[in-house]
Amino acid sequence: MVGVSEYAEAGVLLAWDTAFESWHAGFHVQRSPGHDRPYVRLTRELIRPPAPYRFLDQGVQEATTYFYRLEAVARNGTSEFFGPIEVRTATGASPMP
User: Fold this and answer.
1) Could you tell me the pTM of the whole model?
2) Are 84 and 43 in contact, with CB atoms under 8 Å apart?
3) What pLDDT is stored for residue 9 in this prediction?
């Protein structure tokens, strides 16, 4: 699994792909304000197959560092975490509601 992130005008866009999808029920995206701080789930529902997967985090502030990780949920209900990746938002971007 490869995680890719970028900062867009509308927020942080996360995109990823998987090598094998047969066991995935879907994914949740989690965000933390620091590598040693708790993560908060951003998705209400699973992001379901098929790939490619994308999630736009619109709840970000300018000039702020965030850490993201994926929770891969298997069809049997178990979870595996991928990441984190670190993203620094740009200065001059507007916070999203």
Assistant:
1) 0.84
2) no
3) 67
